[in-house]
User: Which sequence fits this backbone?
């Protein structure tokens, strides 16, 4: 019983489907699927039966005037202003809370800032004007997008540099692998892995095997010479 | 009495971890077989004793033993029994004990399932796990003792569990998350053992793979449940806020994902060795960093525990020893290891390298976004905040090449791939995904929205490509039915996980684009129309819960054509002991959209502020996460991981 | 060269941990005092105890003062009244209150009622000490928003010309006054009263 996952194996014996390894495996998977289903159901009835007309849910135009609509807490002259207001309240940080934007917080200062934002948007100020207004009073802290300066520029530069340097590293590695100094691995483990690979790859496999043997011969010859 | 027993058990566990951290490791250098053999029973004993400690604390919570400080601060006799039990991990001290218990559980599991490992390797791995255990048990015992008493003056009633945590999501979310975090300790220990031994062959990678997959599976589920819990419990319909605590769990996940892919290369091709080891160290290091960020108070977060610089200093020293030590070992050992495998520029190796590059860049983005405000402030440059706008912008640009690469990757062969044979299938995939994406846009009559279209295109590209790749592979086995049985479980797992990713990006793009919300003042009988649904407020009445009061609202939802959709019940609770307001949102979930209503404050004139949301495809985000973890589970069942390793055979020959 | 590359992760981590260490001993919620150096924003607000009297920035000029944002609903504010009274009596610090009114919650039947509020304030000031020259009533919290106030208590030092010279979030205790505010106040008080 010298196996890595002995208990699992015990369940998997006599498996008809070697790929998915055994009835126990299948039942584990289906148990998982059931849990998955239960999760989806947890809030209401059957979910997977998606609604017959999903179309309207994304229809943006709406006959709001058709029904006696209740008063909106914030009434806007245009849809753009509403979107701007929603965007701003999501981007502005409540200065008193742990870590919440002013849209989601009910702290007094968040409510006041929401009202102010609404007022400013109603006055026709654009996004930057409103942000400047708040930053003038509460500092950069109040906006979830940091200002760009000599230091913060690294927020954008560092990831780009990492991306580039990691790709360069790979190019360099590949450039190195052609140098004849190196040999192809021939420890038993790798070879065993090699035989393990997808049958579909056999053609290229044998070709590369040939290359590998050639390399070994060349390497052998060189080491004798030096 | 029972809490003292728990503390005693924890002390014993500390003793076992110290022996485990010393004896087998020393034995591995002196080739002392008996010292190595002692590792497994020690690991089991350590687990049993941490479990006893955990049960003792649970007992104290269950029986409302307010003479225990932790119970008094985080529970009350009014709590239902199941929340009394989950309150065990509702505080810093209790959750630390759970962390310790889970770490010991993984340690014992490695001992139990590692019969295929050579004794030397097993001893080293368990030894390293023992060393990590020492740190955490000591932290729990000396810096945040969950069994501390309030005697002689104990309160007659506890100050209750944080109302945010009184939810079913909390019952399983933290245990799963911790299983994931701590699970990476196993990959870490495997890497350290390999660094000590200096052997990094494919066998090593094959041993480490199932453990990494298992940890990743739990972490994926944990993060996903956390997101779902925030969505339904915080009352503002958000599913991810880029909060430092969320980021702390996202970073190890990203590195863990990279590690899974890099391990595949190391196992199959014997290359990327130093890279894989670095990722294995990185995944757990970031878990530790996350624990530090959450528990030290260096960052402001909605979810963090109370700040205490003393604990922070302890954890930081621990971090320096574990992460600094392992990186030093890495630097001194790894530079001499060279992989010699050959591969061409267009090969599976390079594709997976690309995957790693993007995942690592994403990790750096999250790390910078989380810690840069701290750095900025400590440099004396003032306070800044980094949140959604920054992360969304960066992830938008990172996701495009990543998804394109992901669609192509599984088609590409190891070592070398000629471009010509792939042209036809990839063109087919491209056409199909265009049809699917544009078809969906047309069917939903939606306005042209760049983000939604892009999300659909990328999702379809990844999803269609994954399905077609499996189909093509199955055909190569001769007949389709033969192929279904022959294809490895790990290949199915990969395909499902990739489809999960596709589902998730579609969900994110659609939700971000088409979500709508209205903040309205409603009197009883009022109706509000949003996105084709009409919400009618029918009744609002007073609530009487066991430990809360408040108000509840009843709403009916109809389509605009009048067909009845559902009834919704939203609550606004006021928890009496903690004097905290909580919204219990009403949610009606369908695969195509969620209806989400939260009840706000009462307004003058017998009216209420009510927030109504319609969130298309939001459920796809979590469905995607579930599919990813399902993929990991199926891959775990691959029989390859349960076969005798060549080394073990040699050792027993 | 190759060898050096392998030390990069270690160096990066050590650098990061330096910041983590210093971060442990500073408050992550501290904000920048952006109002410093700016004149008081325009306002015209009534006196809390005598609403007929209206205060504007010009009416406050002439002498530096400590502007204290507070409310009776805030325990920390009440607790610091004693020390501030001491500052007024012993050091002659001119302290003006900016009364921060909490929004009323109709769910609990709360309505804004000035006489009731005045009575509450008088009781508190009698109980803990009265450091104020007078109090400005900011019922809509508009001035507070313009000053970048996020809650109570907060403090501003304003010079004789009406320019904000310091902004302190949180309470004033002997240590805070000595280390952070006293020097600023003395600098501007010394200038105007030689």
Assistant:
């Amino acid at each position: 019983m010298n196996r890595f996952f002995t208990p699992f194996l015990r369940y998997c014996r006599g498996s008809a489907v070697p790929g998915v390894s055994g009835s126990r495996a299948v039942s584990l998977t289906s148990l998982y699927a059931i849990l998955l289903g239960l999760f989806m159901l947890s809030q209401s009835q059957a979910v997977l039966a998606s609604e017959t007309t999903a179309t309207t849910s994304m229809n943006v135009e709406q006959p709001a005037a058709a029904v006696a609509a209740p008063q909106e807490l914030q009434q806007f002259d245009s849809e753009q202003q509403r979107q701007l207001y929603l965007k701003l309240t999501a981007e502005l940080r409540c200065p008193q809370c742990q870590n919440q934007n002013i849209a989601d917080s009910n702290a007094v200062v968040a409510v006041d800032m929401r009202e102010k934002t609404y007022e400013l948007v109603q006055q026709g100020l654009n996004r930057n004007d409103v942000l400047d207004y708040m930053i003038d009073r509460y500092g950069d802290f109040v906006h979830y997008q940091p200002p760009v300066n000599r230091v913060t520029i690294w927020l954008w530069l560092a990831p780009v540099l990492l991306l580039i340097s990691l790709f360069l590293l790979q190019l360099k590695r590949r450039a190195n692998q052609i140098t004849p100094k190196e040999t192809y691995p021939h420890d038993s483990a790798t070879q065993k892995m090699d035989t393990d690979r997808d049958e579909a790859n056999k053609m290229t496999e044998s070709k590369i095997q040939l290359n590998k043997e050639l390399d070994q011969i060349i390497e052998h010859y060189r080491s004798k010479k030096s | 009495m029972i809490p003292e027993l728990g503390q005693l058990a924890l002390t014993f566990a500390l003793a076992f971890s110290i022996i485990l951290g010393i004896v087998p490791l020393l034995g591995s250098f002196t080739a002392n077989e008996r010292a190595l053999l002692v590792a497994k029973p020690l690991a089991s004993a350590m687990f049993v004793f941490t479990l006893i400690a955990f049960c003792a604390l649970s007992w104290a919570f269950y029986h409302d033993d307010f003479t225990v400080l932790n119970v008094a601060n985080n529970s009350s006799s009014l709590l239902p029994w199941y929340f009394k039990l989950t309150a065990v991990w509702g505080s810093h001290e209790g959750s630390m004990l759970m962390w310790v218990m889970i770490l010991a559980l993984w340690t014992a599991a490695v001992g139990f399932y590692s019969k295929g490992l050579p004794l030397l390797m097993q001893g080293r791995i368990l030894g390293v796990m023992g060393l990590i255990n020492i740190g955490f048990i000591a932290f729990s015992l000396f810096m945040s003792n969950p069994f501390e008493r309030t005697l002689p003056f104990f309160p007659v009633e506890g100050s209750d569990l944080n109302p945010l945590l009184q939810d079913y999501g909390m019952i399983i979310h933290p245990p799963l998350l911790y299983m994931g975090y701590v699970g990476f300790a196993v990959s870490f220990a495997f890497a350290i053992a390999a660094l000590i031994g200096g052997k990094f062959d494919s066998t090593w990678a094959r041993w480490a793979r199932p453990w990494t997959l298992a940890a990743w599976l739990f972490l994926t589920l944990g993060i996903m449940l956390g997101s779902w819990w925030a969505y339904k419990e915080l009352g503002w319909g958000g599913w991810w806020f880029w909060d430092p605590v969320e980021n702390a769990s996202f970073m190890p996940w990203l590195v863990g994902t990279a590690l899974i892919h890099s391990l595949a290369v190391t196992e199959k091709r014997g290359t990327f060795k130093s890279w894989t080891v670095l990722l294995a160290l990185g995944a757990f290091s970031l878990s530790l960093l996350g624990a530090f960020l959450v528990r030290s108070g260096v960052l402001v977060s909605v979810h963090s525990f109370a700040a205490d610089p003393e604990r922070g200093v302890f954890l930081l020293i621990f971090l320096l020893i574990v992460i600094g030590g392992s990186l030093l070992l890495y630097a001194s050992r790894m530079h001499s290891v060279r992989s010699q495998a050959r591969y061409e520029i267009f090969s599976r190796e390079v594709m997976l390298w690309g995957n790693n590059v993007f995942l690592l860049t994403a990790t750096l983005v999250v790390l910078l976004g989380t810690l840069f405000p701290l750095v900025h402030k400590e440099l004396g440059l003032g306070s800044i905040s980094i949140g959604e706008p920054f992360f969304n912008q960066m992830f938008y640009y990172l996701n495009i090449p990543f998804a394109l690469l992901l669609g192509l990757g599984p088609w590409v062969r190891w070592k070398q791939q000629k471009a010509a044979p792939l042209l036809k299938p990839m063109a087919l995939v491209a056409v199909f995904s265009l049809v699917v994406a544009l078809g969906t846009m047309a069917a939903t009559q939606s306005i042209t929205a760049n983000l939604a279209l892009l999300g659909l295109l990328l999702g379809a590209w990844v999803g269609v490509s994954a399905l077609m790749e499996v189909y093509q592979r199955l055909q190569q086995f001769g007949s389709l039915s033969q192929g279904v049985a022959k294809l490895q479980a790990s290949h199915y797992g990969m395909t499902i996980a990739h489809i999960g990713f596709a589902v998730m990006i579609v969900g994110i793009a659609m939700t971000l684009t088409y979500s709508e919300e209205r903040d309205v003042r409603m009197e009883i009988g009022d109706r509000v129309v949003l996105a084709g649904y009409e919400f009618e407020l029918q009744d609002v009445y007073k609530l009487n819960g066991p430990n809360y009061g408040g108000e509840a609202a009843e709403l009916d939802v109809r389509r605009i054509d009048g067909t009845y959709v559902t009834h919704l019940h939203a609550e606004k609770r006021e928890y009496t002991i903690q004097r905290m307001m909580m919204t219990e949102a009403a949610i009606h979930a369908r695969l195509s959209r969620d209806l989400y209503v939260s009840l706000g404050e009462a307004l003058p004139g017998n009216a209420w502020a009510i927030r109504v949301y319609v969130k298309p495809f939001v459920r796809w985000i979590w469905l995607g996460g579930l599919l990813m973890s399902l993929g990991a589970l199926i891959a775990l069942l691959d029989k390859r991981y349960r076969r005798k390793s060549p080394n073990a055979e040699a050792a027993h020959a | 060269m190759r060898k050096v590359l392998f030390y990069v992760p270690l160096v990066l981590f050590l650098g990061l941990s330096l910041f983590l260490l210093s971060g442990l001993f500073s408050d992550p919620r501290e904000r920048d005092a952006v109002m410093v150096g700016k004149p008081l924003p325009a306002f015209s607000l009534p006196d809390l105890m005598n609403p007929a009297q209206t205060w504007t920035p010009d009416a406050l000029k002439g002498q530096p003062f400590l502007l204290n944002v507070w409310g009776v609903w805030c325990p920390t504010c009440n607790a610091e009244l004693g020390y501030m009274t001491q500052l007024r009596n012993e050091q002659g610090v001119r302290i003006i209150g900016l009364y921060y009114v909490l929004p009323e919650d109709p769910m609990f039947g709360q309505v804004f009622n000035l006489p009731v509020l005045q009575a509450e304030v008088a009781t508190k000031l009698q109980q803990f000490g009265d450091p104020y020259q007078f109090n400005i009533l900011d019922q809509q919290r508009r001035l507070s928003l313009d000053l970048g106030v996020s809650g109570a208590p907060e403090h501003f030092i304003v010079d004789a010309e009406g320019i904000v010279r310091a902004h302190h979030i949180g309470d004033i205790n002997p240590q805070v006054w000595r280390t952070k505010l006293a020097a600023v106040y003395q600098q501007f008080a010394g200038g105007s009263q030689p």
Summary: The CA atoms of residues 20 and 196 of chain A lie 17 Å apart. Chain A touches chain B through 105 residues (CB under 8 Å). The domain at 79-142 of chain A is CATH 1.10.8.640 (Helicase, Ruva Protein; domain 3). DSSP finds eight helices and no strands in chain A.
